[in-house]
Amino acid sequence: MVSNNKDKEPLEEDIQDSELEEEVKEEVKEMSSMKRERQAGPLPPAPSLNSFPAVEEALRVTDEFCDQYRVLRREVEILQEENNRLRRMLERFLTPIRVVPPSPPKE
Question: How far apart are the C-alpha atoms of 21 and 30, rounded to whole Å?
């Protein structure tokens, strides 16, 4: 037997879901209108970061850190190249020399 859901009253969950759906639609409308408002007018000029002493100091420290990092990175590259060169030398040094005995004279 097939039940007919049209005769039943909506459940509380159904009402909450439809209310939530309406709230979401309203939020989307508000966000869309705010986006249009932002796009309509020019952006205000951004304040200069150099006008804040704390920002100036942070930029200086960051630049200094980056410079030191570049130097250290280059030193690591140099040490890796030297390490590879020494490994190759050791491999050659430790490779046993194979002496091939002379072949017997042909008769």
Answer: 14
* Measured CA distances, 88 to 83, 94, 95, 96 (Å): 9, 10, 11, 14
Q: For residue range 44-80, list pLDDT tens digits in order.
A: 677 776 677 888 888 899 999 999 999 999 999 999 9
| Cα distance between residue 3 and residue 5, in whole Å | 6
Task: Sketch the domain layout of the chain as residue ranges.
Answer: 12-39, 52-95
DSSP conformational letter for 23:
H
For residue 13, the surrounding DSSP H or E stretch is: helix 12-40
| Element counts in the chain: helices (H) and strands (E) | 2, 0
φ, ψ for residue 90 (rounded to 5)?
Answer: -65, -40
Please identify which residue in the block is written with the tokens 């020494």: 86
Q: Which amino acid is at 14?
A: D
